[in-house]
Design goal:
The structure holds 2 protein chains of 2 kinds. By secondary structure, chain A is mainly beta. Chain A contains no helices and 12 strands. In chain A, 0% of the residues lie in helices and 54% in strands. The radius of gyration of chain A is 14 Å and the shape is globular. The termini of chain A are far apart. Chain B is mainly beta. Chain B is built from no helices and 11 strands. In chain B, strands 2, 4, 5, 6, 9, 10 and 11 form a 7-stranded mixed β-sheet that branches. In chain B, strands 1-3-8-7 form a 4-stranded antiparallel β-sheet, with no helix packed on it. Classes of the chains: A mainly beta, B mainly beta. The A-B interface holds A 33, 37, 42-45, 47, 50, 52, 91, 95-101, 103-106, 108 and B 1, 34, 41-44, 46, 49, 91, 93, 95, 103-106, 108, 110-111, 113.
């Protein structure tokens, strides 16, 4: 069975601090996809990134970066120089061929001014 | 990217009434649509999967007579909460996937917040 763990339930940081959100996954599939979504207070899921299991390259997009390590089954997300607008719930998700999306429990990030 | 809409975005109803939520893929054909439910401060839980023209597949513990799903066309799926009760109050999110893509790419709607009084 597939499983996603986000051990950090809530994180609070002060604006301009860097913050890393952890995601650990479990799967028996060799081909799978990992995702990060942002859910602001409005509720709409905002897609951030998709990574397939064969691509372990880290990715950077502006202030966002992702560290994918198959050896530790982790797909961590770092926000550099956080801003108040980054305050949201962040979900890590996993899917495999023929599988449904499995979402982690989410991490609520509060960025204080 | 592909756009998925939901209507209504928010609905308040009295206990015992039925509520229909629509999910539309606006610029692509969605062979598979998914319905999720999210309680406050909780994660998304898959309720059911529907393929166009077929009966929906419900996850364990989801009452199919309570949550009626229809996927009559490649751009529209509906979720009807029948005889709604306060415990059905939740945030309902749909997603849609094109042919063969459902396991690696789903496009999510903005969600519908249901409040049952």
């Amino acid at each position: 069975a597939q499983k996603v763990t986000q051990a950090q339930t809530e994180i609070s940081v002060v604006e301009k601090e860097d913050v890393t959100l952890d995601c650990v996954y479990e799967t028996r599939d060799t081909t799978y996809y990992l995702f990060w979504y942002k859910q602001p207070p409005s509720g709409e899921l905002v897609f951030l990134i998709r990574r397939n299991s064969f691509d372990e390259q880290n990715e950077i997009s502006g202030r966002y970066s992702w560290n994918f390590q198959k050896s530790t089954s982790s797909f961590n997300f770092t926000i550099t120089a956080s801003q108040v607008v980054d305050s949201a719930v962040y979900f890590c998700a996993l899917t495999g061929y023929g599988q449904n999306f499995v979402f982690g429990p989410g991490t609520r990030l509060s960025v204080l001014p | 990217g592909a756009v998925v809409s939901q209507h209504p975005s928010r609905v308040i109803c009295k206990s015992g009434t039925s509520v229909k939520i629509e999910c539309r893929s606006l610029d692509f054909q969605a062979t598979t649509m998914f319905w999720y439910r999210q309680f406050p401060k909780k994660s998304l839980m898959l309720m059911a999967t529907s393929n166009e023209g077929s009966k929906a597949t419900y996850e364990q513990g989801v009452e199919k007579d309570k949550f009626l799903i229809n996927h009559a066309s490649l751009t529209l799926s509906t979720l009807t909460v029948t005889s709604a009760h306060p415990e059905d109050s939740s945030f309902y999110i749909c997603s849609a996937a094109g042919r063969g893509d459902s396991y690696n790419e789903q496009f999510f709607g903005p969600g519908t917040r249901l409040t049952v009084l």
